[in-house]
Design brief:
Elements (H helix, E strand, L loop, with lengths): L3 E2 L1 E4 L15 H14 L3 E5 L5 H13 L4 E5 L4 H10 L6 E8 L2 H7 L4 H16 L4 E7 L6 H14 L3 E6 L6 H14 L7 E6 L6 H10 L4 E4 L13 H10 L5 E2 L7 H12 L16 E2 L2 H9 L18 E2 L7 H10 L6 H15 L7 H9 L4 H4 L1
Parallel strand pairs: 1-10, 2-3, 2-9, 3-4, 4-5, 5-6, 6-7, 7-8, 8-9, 11-12
Helix pairs in contact: 1-2, 1-10, 2-3, 5-6, 6-7, 7-8, 11-12, 13-14
């Protein structure tokens, strides 16, 4: 049976850019948008057009250059927002307007000072108005994670009735547990009127470190789009990381779910976004962190040298990383030292290795990492020249 496709909706240029200090200019956004298109994302959320003239212009310019992906503009459930987004998207080959409103009791009471009935009406009116400009309209129910499921199903039903093609179910505050979020998606697949006419989308935040887990729970339970960002960047603690969900689905083929992402471009794309935004990727970040395929423990190093799959479930080349890194530290064993020595031209015998290893440990205890020049120096000063010759 062939895999079902999960659409990847990238919001690096909208939600990702909401990180303090990560503002991009139009030229930088266009470069990243081109890469996202090459990467194989299905939808690029290019910005929030009404928020500023600069963002409007960025959406216009991105719409001109994207060849394959749908280009999306965010709006509130406000007619002026929607009209401005439609104008910004006029050059897009496949435009989408993303409109919506808060649906949790907290949002309804404190943000809108409204009633549930008023929210239902505003949601339907926003979608219907967006539909007069484009065929593809995505509706977001902000704070869906804390919205009562029965009311959420009513809002989604009204959105579909008004013409929505995608229903975005955001865990806006990163509150949900994976089991809870998955159950919410399942409830909607079973209780939203006209659900067969729309795609359910996961948009999860990482406030409790569960954005990726929640998104995977969502697609297991029937969602067919994941909204995510490169490196998981985003407001507060960030969003679902694109590279993580892509590789999770690849590593678990029994789920029968996959994406169109060219995974070999993931690492390079991560670097591009990190450098453009000035947002350093934490070294232990899954998939694209500097230490994702690095080994410093002697036991692990020995295992990886003998057979990479002993401690690595992903071939680093699959995500664009050249090879696994054997990092020499005081925790490294003889196998790792011999491996690094051979890499720089020294094929040590067991006796030679014992001598060099003794000297290596002295240096390793003084340094965090022992580099190749250190290894060269250690070998050259270990009185084994005549044996090497």
């Amino acid at each position: 049976m062939s895999n079902q496709k999960i659409q990847i909706f990238d919001t690096t240029l909208r939600d990702g850019e909401q990180v303090p200090g990560c503002k991009l200019n139009t030229d930088q956004k266009v470069v990243i948008a081109k890469r996202l298109d090459e990467l194989g994302v299905d939808v690029i959320e290019a910005g929030f057009p009404i928020s500023s003239p600069g963002d409007f212009n960025s959406v216009v310019e991105i719409s001109k250059v994207v060849k394959n992906a749908t280009v999306c503009g965010l709006t509130r459930a406000v007619k002026e927002d929607i009209a401005v987004a439609a104008q910004a998207l006029k050059f897009a080959k496949k435009p989408r307007i993303h409109t919506g409103i808060g649906t949790s009791d907290s949002h309804i009471k404190y943000k809108f000072n409204a009633t549930r009935e008023e929210i239902l009406q505003r949601a339907a009116e926003a979608v219907a108005y967006a539909k007069t400009f484009v065929d593809d309209v995505e509706f977001y129910a902000e704070d869906a994670g804390r919205t009562d499921n029965e009311f959420l199903a009513k809002v989604c039903s009204e959105a579909i009735k008004a013409g929505a093609t995608v229903l975005n179910i955001p865990d806006t505050t990163g509150y949900c547990l994976p089991e809870e979020y998955g159950a919410k998606i399942k409830y909607l697949t079973e209780n939203v009127i006209g659900i067969e006419k729309a795609i359910l989308s996961c948009h999860c935040h990482n406030d409790l470190g569960m954005a990726t887990a929640n998104s995977i729970a969502g697609v297991i339970n029937g969602a067919r789009q994941i909204e995510c960002t490169i490196n998981g960047i985003g407001e507060r603690a960030g969003n679902t990381a694109l590279e993580e969900v892509v590789m999770i689905l690849r590593q678990h083929p029994h789920l029968g779910l996959d994406t169109n992402i060219n995974a070999e471009l993931l690492y390079n794309t991560s670097l591009m976004v990190s450098e453009s935004m000035g947002m350093i990727v934490q070294p232990n970040k899954a998939i694209v962190g500097a230490n994702a395929f690095a080994h410093s423990s002697g036991i692990h190093q020995d295992g990886v040298i003998k057979n990479r799959e002993t401690y690595e479930i992903i071939d680093p080349r699959a995500v664009g990383v050249t090879e696994s890194a054997i990092v020499l530290t005081a925790r490294s064993g003889r196998a790792a030292l011999a491996y690094r020595a051979k890499k720089i031209g020294y094929d040590l015998t067991k006796i030679q290795l014992d001598i060099v290893y003794h000297e290596f440990l002295k240096i390793a205890d003084m340094k965090k990492v022992v580099i190749d020049t250190d290894v060269h120096r250690i070998i050259e000063t270990s009185n084994i020249h005549r044996i090497l010759a």
